[in-house]
Specification:
Layout (H helix, E strand, L loop, with lengths): L2 E11 L12 E12 L2 E7 H7 L5 E12 L1 E7 L13 H13 L5 H17 L2 E7 L4 H14 L4 E3 L1 E2 L12 H15 L6 E6 L7 H13 L4 E6 L3 H10 L6 H7 L7 E5 L5 H10 L2 E4 L1 H6 L7 H6 L3 E4 L11 H14 L6 H16 L16 E4 L5 H7 L5 H11 L5 E6 L2 E2 L1
Parallel strand pairs: 1-4, 5-6, 6-7, 7-9, 8-9, 9-10, 10-11, 11-12, 12-13
Antiparallel strand pairs: 1-2, 2-3, 4-14, 14-15, 15-16
């Protein structure tokens, strides 16, 4: 059993902050410590107390003055789109047809999948992201490569083979039956193996027939503990086309509800253009609206209405949406989320932003007992952040006196250089 003690300033959230200075929402130790045993946090608190409880010979790693937090969680990202990021396009559907569907066809090749699985996880870890929920390609080989590499690195990752049986190039489509069969094979091979979690993944209503959405709903009934990930109401043209394809549906959200895909396991990417009726049924189902700010800005899709969504009681998450998104960094993503809410006339406090990227996203994934906090019993996925990582940050840091101000600095000027160390299940990577 490997035992080590990490010393530094520690921050962990216990609830969603309700105000800019909601000190009851988090636990902060100026001189804190985390005791790690066999890949899990066994104790957290003041360094003096944790040091006394540690066994003789425990390795002590001093990260002062860095800020130790739970690793970032990215609940909506596309594994096959690393080489699509930063592709110039007019809008969502143009971007999909011109770049994305072309690139994803390359993932029929197993060697290509393996290479990009390594590159993908390298990049996530460099940014301090220790868990992600990813869309693989339509090919079963892409999901196999994704989970094989996650297993090799002992990462807690979520992923799914995309189900897509229409409105895409022929080499990039499956059928309702093959999508069901391949997804079931991925579940049987990988779900629960190591730290892996498989998600049922119909891409979105435009690229799935009613028969395929029915097949996805059947999988959801057969495996009720699995997450479901798809896209919802990202773009006006997408919404209009969806309603042409599903004329009997009340609205876009109703398409998924009719096929058994709207539940507390559903991760609904984007969810920008929602009616009051849609927000009400999403809230009632307990589904999650996943905000993807850099993607929404890059593709001109719209501005996520966080205040209204919260008023309706809809659960939320925040994600990069690579490759529609323009940064792998959750710090850059938090910065853009703040700016979008500014344009909406709503202030988003840094405490709430960092809660969302850690505990909040873990709650959205149903995994808060394992990740997203520094609580005893959690998996030891931990990052060390440096708020003086660049000359510009150093200058601003001289005038900062509160934790809230430091977090705002981290999200406004921080990037991959801010992430000084990453631990996965207690091991430095």
């Amino acid at each position: 059993m490997t035992t080590r003690l990490l010393r530094g300033r520690t921050l962990s959230f216990v609830s969603r902050p309700q105000a800019r200075d909601d000190h009851a929402s988090y636990i902060y130790e100026e001189d804190g410590a985390l005791l790690i045993e066999d890949g899990k946090i066994s104790a957290a608190g003041a360094y003096a107390d944790i040091k006394r409880s540690a066994s003789e010979g425990t390795e002590i790693i001093d990260h002062r003055p860095l800020l130790l937090m739970a690793g970032f969680i990215d609940p909506h990202i596309h594994f096959p789109q690393m080489q699509v990021t930063a592709s110039y396009a007019a809008n969502l559907l143009d971007w999909l047809n011109t770049y994305t569907f072309v690139e994803e066809q390359r993932f029929a090749d197993a060697d290509h999948c393996s290479r990009f699985a390594q590159l993908f996880f390298d990049e996530l870890l460099r940014q301090g992201t220790t868990t992600a929920a990813a869309y693989c390609s339509v090919h079963k080989s892409s999901a196999d490569a994704y989970f094989a590499e996650a297993t090799r690195r002992n990462l807690l990752m979520i992923g799914g083979k995309v189900m897509m049986d229409r409105n895409a190039p022929e080499p990039l489509t499956d059928t309702a039956q093959s999508g069901y069969d391949d997804t079931k094979a991925v579940i049987e091979s990988w779900h629960g193996k190591g730290r892996n979690h498989v998600a049922i993944t119909p891409r979105f209503a435009i690229t799935s027939t009613a028969a395929q959405l029915d097949a996805a709903g059947t999988l959801a009934r057969e495996y009720p503990d699995l997450l479901i990930q798809t896209h919802l109401s990202e773009n006006d043209a997408e919404i209009a086309y969806t309603l042409e394809l599903y004329p009997d549906a009340k609205d876009y959200t109703d398409v998924y509800a009719r096929h058994g895909l709207l539940s507390d396991k559903a991760l609904l990417g984007h969810a920008i253009h929602l009616s009051d009726r849609e927000m009400a049924v999403i809230a009632e189902a307990g589904a999650v609206a996943v905000h993807c700010p850099t993607s929404n800005l890059f593709l001109g899709s719209g501005l996520f209405d966080l205040k209204r969504i919260k008023q309706h009681g809809v659960r939320t998450a925040i994600a990069t949406d690579i490759g529609g998104g323009s940064s792998y960094s959750l710090l850059r993503t938090l910065d853009e989320a703040y700016k979008i809410q500014q344009l909406r006339g709503h202030r988003l406090p840094p405490l709430e932003n960092f809660w969302q990227a850690t505990r909040g996203n873990a709650e959205a994934l149903g995994l808060v007992e394992r990740i997203g906090t520094l609580e005893a019993g959690s998996d030891a996925d931990i990052i060390a952040l440096d708020s003086s990582a660049t000359p510009a940050m150093q200058i601003r840091r001289e005038t900062i006196s509160t934790l809230e101000e430091e977090l705002f600095l981290l999200q406004t000027l921080g990037d991959d250089r801010t992430v000084r160390q990453v631990y996965v299940a207690g091991e430095a990577v």
